Amino acid sequence: NYPMRAVTCLYSAFLFLLSIQQIIANEGRIHCGNALFCFPNKTSSDFEYYNKISKELEAIVRKGVEENSTSLPMVEGSTLFRKLTEVRKFLCEDFSMTGFLLDENIKNWTTQCVWNGRDYNGICMPAPFKTDVIYYYVEKNEWKKRLQRYREKIGCSAREVSKAETAEEQFVCRQRCLSAGISYVASMIMIVSFCVSFMINCV
Fold first, then answer.
1. I want to staple 146 with a disulfide (CB 3.0 to 4.6 A). Which of 70, 99, 168, 192 is the partner?
2. Is 172 left (phi over 0), alpha (psi -120 to 50) or beta?
3. Are 128 and 76 in contact (CB under 8 A)?
């Protein structure tokens, strides 16, 4: 059936060209989700903001300990009080990011794709990187300890600190995060093989 073979041929050629375009377009950036791309050389404004707030909360908690106080030392209902209270609530419940906050080496990190356990929603943020690997994870027990230490530092409740026990492994990826680690060259070979199998009917 010539019309069907012609349609198959054109469709295969379209898939081939589209796949090549996607591979080239994704070079130099990290595909971290359905429509989320991380740029290694671009800083994360959210991460910087939360790190700044974390330092403020840590300083407040440290001062409170010295003065034997457990409350935020500011006028309740003020803009600053509301902001810190709301942000702290979010940070005390986070599992994917906060274990890396307040680290002294943050300024040396690059933006990567990270997620916790079975979470399908990765986020772009600075994270420690290893030059010899493109993908690694922080073991569950180590990540729990990081989360607990962080939550204690910013004054989370005992219940929120204990909930860190439910954390899973923390994954960090800087290349091909959604392609099972398959390289661009291997991807090209697979795509070509797939398309050729369809285009045989065009000959």
1. 99
2. beta
3. no
